[in-house]
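Example with several molecule types.
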Amino acid sequence: MGRRSDHSRAELEELIVSEGHRHMAEVGFARFSSREVAKRIGYAVGTLTNVLGSYDRLIAAINTRTFELWTAHLEATLAREPADRIEALVEGYFSFARDNRSLWMAIYDHRLAPDEIMPDDFMTRRAALTEIVVREVAAVLPPDAKDKAPRLARSLVATVHGHCTFALNGSFALLGETDPQGMAVARVKESLTAAEA
Amino acid sequence: MGRRSDHSRAELEELIVSEGHRHMAEVGFARFSSREVAKRIGYAVGTLTNVLGSYDRLIAAINTRTFELWTAHLEATLAREPADRIEALVEGYFSFARDNRSLWMAIYDHRLAPDEIMPDDFMTRRAALTEIVVREVAAVLPPDAKDKAPRLARSLVATVHGHCTFALNGSFALLGETDPQGMAVARVKESLTAAEA
DNA sequence: ATCAACAATTAGACACTGTTCAATAAAATA
DNA sequence: TATTTTATTGAACAGTGTCTAATTGTTGAT
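Resulting structure tokens for the full complex:
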């Protein structure tokens, strides 16, 4: 054993997180195994704990990566210059979750222990998603109401999130709702209408 | 070994689920252990699997019980004849989640394997919560719009759920939002206002 | 060139997890 | 009383993440 050195520490961390991300996409949070990830990249079990610090941090790193993909997906959707940017945002929210079920759900399946704190680096990278929404909400509000954009945007994200959650976990299907995304758009529109005057 | 018989099968199941419920409240989904539950009630490991069928079914039973407590909590809130029943419903949604963090989160932390199906019994008991909301939403809609109550009610539950999720998992606090519940009420009111006329 | 210090990696032990299943003992039935 | 049923066990099994002593390649100083 000892230094193998085909990887720097940073490269190894990248290798672990990217393979972990792949594994998460395949099996989901409940069946995720850091031992399996180790096996796949040809490293020993303990190495992952050494490099990432703990299982929780590995999951946090994987989920942060998912956030970045999601943010990129939203930006790409908007870059297509859709007629209705707000509706496009909801569509992007839903379609990412739908096409990346396991990854998306893992974000909300995981919570770090109450004593542990999320690294600042991770927080910043995750915040980018909400910032897009704040920006777009501000754009549709009248000039004198723009200061309300941040609070309203967060609230609208929560609204869409609730609809997306129930869409994916089957709650809506169970109750006969066939268009959760349309419902989410309707709620968001109502709130935006109420905000301008 | 052999029949001990201080419990019928149904009584034993009740014992397991109620102790499991207590354990879930204490340690939460991530640290829940059916072995620990077995130890606490003085039964052997395998007995739980025998009686409940599987770990997943045990969790499903525990969560169904939580749904029932939650429903009772909402009814109790309404029984106090609040001035605003819709606002009271949101308050009841939030306060139950707040006061029973681990139990409430466990509901959404758990998903059964795609091949398994939730027993009808469980579904019926869980549906009671949504039915309350449908009833109350119908009550505030004008007569000619009452047929829209079921769909709208589910959508509003999703809205409130999203806000409650972000409130409890810290997303709101992180972004400086101090009144998630007020935000949820505001969104619900806007949608109800839009629905009548 | 040698040697010590350092950093990277490992294997295995550890304490857990839920599930399975042959063995067993007590109650119910004949 | 003898036989069948039923309830319950507990050890074995295949997993999990974490920890730690041992080991080895690399680096820097002498």
